[in-house]
Design a protein that fits this description.
The protein is mainly α and 210 residues long. The chain has one domain (2-201). It is 81% helix and 0% strand. The protein contains 9 helices and no strands. It has helices spanning 2-17, 23-30, 35-66, 71-90, 101-109, 115-124, 127-139, 143-165, 167-205. Helix 1 (2-17) runs antiparallel to helix 7 (127-139) and helix 3 crosses helix 7 (127-139). The longest helix has 39 residues, at 167-205. It is globular, with a radius of gyration of 17 Å. Keywords: Cell membrane, Membrane, Transmembrane, Transmembrane helix.
């Protein structure tokens, strides 16, 4: 049962971040760099994402307490956000909900720091991923589960590192059509996970409704 929970956590993380769909973004942001600099950008971005996700996972309940937000209300809002992100992925609008015009302009002006902005935040460690970490951390607050989730996050970041390192080969192999198919499948999976999160919050807020 615990392995199933960790597997669900890991699959959800891959769906909401969609690192395969971000491959063209990574290539475009690092095309001016040599191989060594691109690899360094890859490492820095994934370390940054790991820190963002782990902090969100561990401090989620504290954040909710500070703002006096109930867990079930946050589940509904977070689930809705995840559904919206999934819909944009299905519609082929990857990144539009993660990065506004000001952030795009800033990232262009600061090409030397693309590893942290915009790769680590907000493209990978965006609001959807942070919301998901807070929900998981508050649903399973025990030390054992949190350690397991942290291990899953590290596995996820390691997979992203391998994926980005082989980005040129993967894009040539899949082509634009293949990347679009993967993005839409991830979006559908993400919408299903978002609905499940919302249903859980509604069920607890209104026990007689569902």
């Amino acid at each position: 049962m615990e392995l199933q929970i960790y597997f669900k956590f890991l699959v959800g993380l891959f769906a909401i971040v969609n690192p395969v769909g971000l491959l063209p973004v990574f290539i475009s942001l690092t095309e001016h760099l040599d191989s060594e600099s691109r690899n360094q950008t890859n490492r820095t971005a994934n370390i940054g994402v790991a820190v963002i996700l782990i902090v969100s996972l561990l401090a989620g309940s504290i954040i909710l307490d500070i703002f006096s937000i109930s867990l079930n209300s946050f589940r509904i809002a977070g689930g809705l956000l995840v559904v919206i992100i999934g819909m944009t992925m299905i519609n082929g609008k990857l990144g539009e909900n993660k990065q506004n015009k000001e952030e795009i302009t800033e990232s262009i002006a600061k090409t030397s720091s693309v590893a942290l902005v915009p790769l680590a935040m907000p493209l990978m460690g965006g609001p959807g991923a942070i919301t998901s970490m807070i929900v998981w951390g508050t649903n399973y607050p025990s030390i054992g589960y949190l350690i397991g989730f942290i291990i899953c996050i590290l596995i996820f970041c390691g997979c992203c590192w391998l994926l980005f390192r082989s980005a040129p080969f993967i894009i040539r192999t899949l082509g634009k059509t293949g990347l679009n198919v993967v993005t839409r499948i991830m979006g559908l999976l993400l919408m299903a996970l978002g609905v499940e999160i919302m249903v859980g919050g509604i069920r607890n807020l209104f026990p007689g409704l569902l």
